[in-house]
Specification:
The structure holds two protein chains of two kinds. Chain A is 0% helix and 50% strand. Chain A is mainly beta. By secondary structure, chain B is an all-beta fold. In chain B, a hairpin with a 4-residue loop joins strand 4 and strand 5. Chain B is globular. The chains are: A mainly beta, B mainly beta. The interface between A and B is medium-sized, with 25 and 21 residues.
Chain lengths: 113, 112
């Protein structure tokens, strides 16, 4: 069964450094999402992406965040200057239409020191 | 303000028991409600519900939606230790939005 894959599984970074989290969505999907889950808290929406542009973003997704689909398969989340509070599990998800279920990757655990 | 509220937050049962997990929601222009199972990593899709009163079933798991009372239940019969997980309920929050708003989840522990 096709699945969403994310790399790396764990990223440790010094505060203030830039990180790029990578995702390969399911191949025929057109809608892409990033969510995060701080330890012990709810899964929270960050951003959705369709047709090579952001379609929605949350208040969390401020100027330090950006997303890109650099080629036909990858979908990336960049955090420009990481803060301690960015430590969380980041999930990528994809769906083949806006009204269809989103399928999640295994996540990248980001630890900011 | 929570728009998706799940109960109970945690539950411990013995193998073979039947459990019912609850999810209530408050959104404008309801379109769908989704259930996911989260073990160690990725939330894994279980069900998407759009119509009231129609049960969705997959093996020992089933779910139903009540759009009048704004809630859904997820039933698991003859529980097994492999059912131990956090069960998440999620809804798109409103018209034109396809992001998912998640509840806090119900942590189910099935003991032998």
């Amino acid at each position: 069964e096709p699945e969403v894959t994310q790399t790396p599984s764990h990223q440790v970074t010094q505060m203030g450094q830039e990180v790029i989290l990578r995702c390969v969505p399911i191949s025929n999907h057109l809608y892409f999402y990033w969510y995060r889950q701080i330890l012990g808290q709810k899964v929270e929406f960050l951003v959705s992406f369709y047709n090579n542009e952001i379609s929605e973003k949350s208040e969390i997704f401020d100027d330090q965040f950006s997303v890109e689909r650099p080629d036909g398969s990858n979908f990336t989340l960049k955090i420009r200057s990481t803060k301690l509070e960015d430590s969380a599990m980041y999930f990528c998800a994809s769906g083949n239409s806006a009204n269809q279920p989103q399928h999640f990757g295994d996540g990248t655990r980001l630890s900011i020191l | 303000e929570d728009k998706v509220v799940q109960s109970p937050l945690s539950l411990v049962v013995h193998e073979g028991d039947t459990v019912t997990l609850n999810c209530s929601y408050e959104v404008t222009n309801f379109r769908s409600l989704l259930w996911y199972k989260q073990e160690k990593k990725a939330p894994t899709f279980l069900f998407m519900l759009t119509s009231s009163g129609i049960e969705k079933k997959s093996g020992r798991l089933s779910s139903i939606l009540d759009k009048k009372e704004l809630f859904s239940i997820l039933n698991i019969t003859a529980t097994q230790t492999g059912d131990s997980a956090v069960y998440l309920c999620a809804v798109p929050p409103g018209a034109g939005s396809y992001q998912l708003t998640f509840g806090k989840g119900t942590k189910l522990s099935v003991i032998p």
